[in-house]
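Ticket reopened. Same input as before:
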Amino acid sequence: QLVLTQSPSASASLGASVKLTCTLSSGHSTYAIAWHQQQPEKGPRYLMKLNSDGSHSKGDGIPDRFSGSSSGAERYLTISSLQSEDEADYYCQTWGTDIQMFGGGTKLTVL
Amino acid sequence: EVQLVESGGGLVQPGRSLRLSCAASGFTFDDYAMYWVRQAPGKGLEWVSGISWNSARIGYEDSVKGRFTISRDNAKNSLYLQMNSLRVEDTALYYCVKGSEYGSSSFDYWGQGTLVTVSS
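Engineering reply: fixed in the latest deploy. New output:
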């Protein structure tokens, strides 16, 4: 069964870097995912598509501070030079034939 | 500029029906799969349904199968979600979402959402 697992929360200091993790279920380690950001009281925004080899393509206007990487079944979103507006919920998403799946989301707090 | 504008939400009693619409602009609508995603108050994102560019492939989340029907009109650049037999647990903000490819794929643009409240 296709499942995405994310830690419920993360925190990091203003100006620092943070690495968020999304883990694919067993047998699905080659799947690509996408990362989406949802700032408080706003709709989600697409950040990037991330492939199993770590290559990624970002959405329109996404700053260079956002990058992605992969290792096995894990997919990472790294945000560097954290800013206050990066405080948000981050969701990973993947897809199969006629099905889509979201992780539970990670709430990022910028200290 | 890609724009996705949802409409049709509102307050409805359990067991009744509602039809959501999404008007798309700024891209070649019939080149891409389209989706509905919902978010219950204070909860995470949940995929509801998706439809391929030519309506040949359609998928539903298990809890809405048999109750919801997705459709699209490529001539009108519009996506629809017919929701029947609504339940209290269908209460959510419903987003229209653009796929990045013609078939099952990542999502790359989101609408602002339309609120559906199911309550007696």
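Chain B has a mean pLDDT of 97. Residues 59 and 110 of chain B are 19 Å apart (CA to CA). Please confirm and we'll close it.
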